[in-house]
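Table S5 (text form). Sequence records supplied for joint modeling of the two-component complex.
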Amino acid sequence: GAVVSQHPSRVICKSGTSVKIECRSLDFQATTMFWYRQFPKQSLMLMATSNEGSKATYEQGVEKDKFLINHASLTLSTLTVTSAHPEDSSFYICSARDPAGGNYGYTFGSGTRLTVV
Amino acid sequence: KQEVTQIPAALSVPEGENLVLNCSFTDSAIYNLQWFRQDPGKGLTSLLLIQSSQREQTSGRLNASLDKSSGRSTLYIAASQPGDSATYLCAVPQGGSEKLVFGKGTKLTVNP
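The corresponding structure-token record, covering 229 residues in total, follows.
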């Protein structure tokens, strides 16, 4: 089945610094990837849709200048949290769908726990 | 706007029991519904994907049903095991898009 790799799994950074999270589709090409955010005991909320070779589309209320998304290849999307603040601490998960995967639906990465201190 | 509700929020059962998790959605114009499992601090593992033309899907001890007209889906877990302990999430597409809308999940604990 389709595999999505996300790195790093955990990161602690100082307030004001930037953090980059990578999401890779290992055995398929993904023209579209999705970035979600999850707060404790809450569901996943879609932040943005990452489109290969073009700008990402952000959901309402998500700051595009704070959460920079780059989808430079068919197998890699990155999310950079710029000038991070403690309120950005959260669990970030990416997903993608293998267009040739039939009924596999969406595959998710293992997530990144970001802690801003 | 699509909204997804999962009941109950938490469930604790003894090992071996059969159980049902519920998911309801407000916009029945969906083309599929997907059930996921999430272990603490981990990503999501896809369990079952039901296309809108299907009424149910089975995988091992798991069976998911879909009733589009009533906006409901159930996940049936047979002969539960401690290893089934996790949070179970259901998700449906937003409108005709590829964006998924998730419920808050049901936290399942299976006690040995």
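Note: The interface with chain A takes residues 4, 32, 34, 36, 41-46, 49, 51, 89, 91, 98-105 of chain B (CB under 8 Å).
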